[in-house]
Write the structure tokens for this entry.
Amino acid sequence: MEFIEPIWSFAEDWKIRLLVLIVLANMYLAIRLYTVMSKARFKAAKEGRVTTETYKATQNEPEDVAVFNRAVVNQFESPVLFYALVVMSLAVGVSSWFTVIIAAAYVATRWRHANEMIGEHVVLKRRKIFVRSIQILLVLMVEVAISAMLRA
């Protein structure tokens, strides 16, 4: 297995820097969605379609506004597993360039998913993107597990 070692150790500092940037890109997505949701809610309030009572428990929100809330909630579901995997791979020292590529692919699909949700919102297209993101997450999980077992 010594042929695998160079993959893990090549430009170690750059792998970490890129993984940090990839994680920050996913965090920025959540902040972006919060901003878009806030604007949609403010617009709905200005138009008189919602009141402050609507947001005591976020009930009876118009569908065109509620979709932004759902987009924000999505950023605290599977991305939590992503964050845990990246942190775990860094903590255990098993992140490779493959980890970086898979992490970037995951974040790219999360951005596509969010943009589809707050954009055209074609449910079957959005589902396909979501399933792809979960598949990528599973690949990352397997990669971290195998890497940890090989490095032990």
Summary: The mean pLDDT is 91. The two ends are 12 Å apart (CA to CA).
